[in-house]
Amino acid sequence: MADDKQVPETGDVNVAKPQKIVLLFCQTGGAPILTKKKWQVESSRTIGWVNTFLRKTLRLEPNESLFLYVNQAFAPSPDRELGTLFDCFSANGKLVLHYATMQAWG
Amino acid sequence: MSSFARKLWNGRIPACFELAMYEVKANSKPAPYYVMLPRSSYLTLFTDQIRDFFEIHMETGTIDEVWFEFRGKTLKWHYPCGLLFDMCCDPSTDLPWHITVHFQSFPEKDIMRCPGVDAIESHYISVLKEADQLKHRMQVYSSLNQSQHKQLWHGLKTDNFEEFWDINKKFMEGHEGTMTFKNIPVRIYFEKRIIQKLFPSVRVENDSERDVTLHNALSNCIPELFEDLDRKTETTAVLIQGTTPPFNTPLQWLSKNMAYADNFLHICVYTNNTNS
Fold it and tell me: What are the helix (H) ranges across chain B?
């Protein structure tokens, strides 16, 4: 995952840069806290990918659950692309994802 | 509620489930299992009856979670049955729908696990909440109590039209006293992509308000589609609930009358090239 630091330009204009979106993680319901909350991510990445990434970053055990929510309301399925979620549910240029280790919004 | 709602609810897909040959016990010849699948239902809601039917024919000790396959493609249980059928079948040749049932080698990479009916319910409610977020900023879902949420799911699960629509009609009301939804929940399935954008129900053109139509939505998401349609009509198809509505149909009308139980309008677009 690329972080939100400026990536140096290669000068090669023929290489199509993948589109990126800004993700903002918010912890809820006693989940471990992330030190870096804002990430720039390729829009073609999926919720499943975010799940794997967060589990690794938060060092969750395989038997621990992780739930991701959009708009503090619904849990998108793992095959959902971040780009389409961003198009429909972003605010102020960011897609806010709440994460919890217990079901937060049934 | 519209007469369309009842007609769609009664729309069934005759399906023929067969146990994968390599999973059949020696000297066993299981008969196929036939089900009329409701379009808005989910394949895994039939898991228990399918497992009960095939169990005596399966090698013991090898039973994992069920998964379904059609022509080598894993079927995503979290899509409604009608959408799955529209995505991969041709009704003129593929009826009944021959689905292969597996209880071994679960394809972790292709589909999510479905440990039980609760998982289907929570997936369904999540999609419904997303739709309501788009239609009414979640105001309808939040205004319902726990037993109404349960009634909605129970009506869908048990194929009870009245029980389901008694609650679902609330999701079909306009947003904040208007006649229309704030945005229309639409997913377009095209060339292995799922396209979802914000579609308001009306747009302004020459200072007047006009309905956003199916044509507007499709040409916005897949601009090349209508060039193709003009050139080779017979190889391009747009399917909503197994039918092709006229392109000038307002999205608002389609959403109200032809959405699935999850309140999304699932639109399959394919050309001969992409369907192969």
Answer: 3-9, 47-54, 81-88, 117-136, 139-143, 146-157, 161-171, 214-221, 224-231, 251-258, 272-275
Global pTM reads: 0.92
Inspect the interface and report whether the beta carbons of B133 and A71 lie closer than 8 Å. Answer: yes
Query: Which of the residues A68, A79, A87 would you substitute to probe the B interface, choosing the one with the greatest number of B C-beta atoms within 10 Å?
Result: A79
- Report the complex ipTM: 0.90
Look at B30 and A4; give whichever has higher pLDDT: B30
Residue A33: inside a domain: yes
| Helix B251-258 / helix B214-221 crossing angle, nearest 10 deg | 100
Is the residue at A46 inside a domain? yes
- Listed in sequence order, the residues at least 6 apart from B124 whose beta carbon sits closer than 8 Å to its beta carbon are B42, B153, B156, B261, B262
Within-domain flag for A35: yes
Q: Please give the pLDDT value at position A106.
A: 64
The CATH-assigned architecture of domain B117-275 is Roll (3.10)
CATH architecture of B10-102: Roll (3.10)
Q: Return the CATH number at A34.
A: 3.10.20.90
Residues in B closer than 8 angstroms to A81, CB to CB, are 194
Averaged pLDDT, A13-34: 84
pLDDT tens digits along A87-105: 999 999 999 999 999 888 7
